[in-house]
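From the pipeline queue, job 12 of 40. The input is one protein chain; the requested action is below.

Action: predict structure.
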Amino acid sequence: MPVIRISDELFSRLEAYAVGFDTPAAVIERLLNEHENKADSETNDEQFNNSSENEVTVIHDEIFQFLLDYKEHNPDFYFMPRQKGKRLEDGYWFPGDENYLVIGFYTGPDDFNKTPNITFQIYLSNHYLRALNRTQVPTCVIQLSNTPRSKGWVSKRPVIEKIIEKLGGFEVNRITDGFDARWNRYYDSKDYLKCLEEFLTKDKPVIDDIIRMEANPEIGFLDKKKADDKINNIVNRRNSN
């Protein structure tokens, strides 16, 4: 068996990681295992990051088809895809870029932040996740945004606060002028279709009930005709390719 000589200082550092009656060899083995597992996880995330840059349109298409299938079985269900722009021509069916995509199900903009008040988002890379102290890629969230000085932000606060209270698990990720302005509620799974299904079947019904109850004119349900027009526009684009 090989013998490794280490300094007293390094031995003391190893002792700090000992659990119970660990031997030095057991400590070293556990540290190596933790390092290798972390490296494997980071490699998998990096592989997703690299592939998402090239295959982000495939992800958009997969999600769009998933929502179409859901709508087929739930005729009163509507969502709002991307409405216009160069990225729509490139197959980005939802707002966002190579790093994230956003799906809207309700009216109500945070015009100061230029985002909807309520969205389901998927982070496709760690570009924004680093600042949120998150490493899992992809990461799915419900995002609420209500920035001070945006149109109707005071009247919208009771709706946002009720959603936060009922669903729970939200984390503040932006403060503006001393007020909480944006919140994320994270899903555990890396499977974005599984997360989206959980949102549609468990979380969205709660939000829907709150919106009906609050009857706030600033946050409501999508216009069915407008949503159908935008959805059919993308369906036609897909069929023509």
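Job complete. The helical segments are 8-15, 24-73, 86-89, 153-167, 192-214, 224-240.
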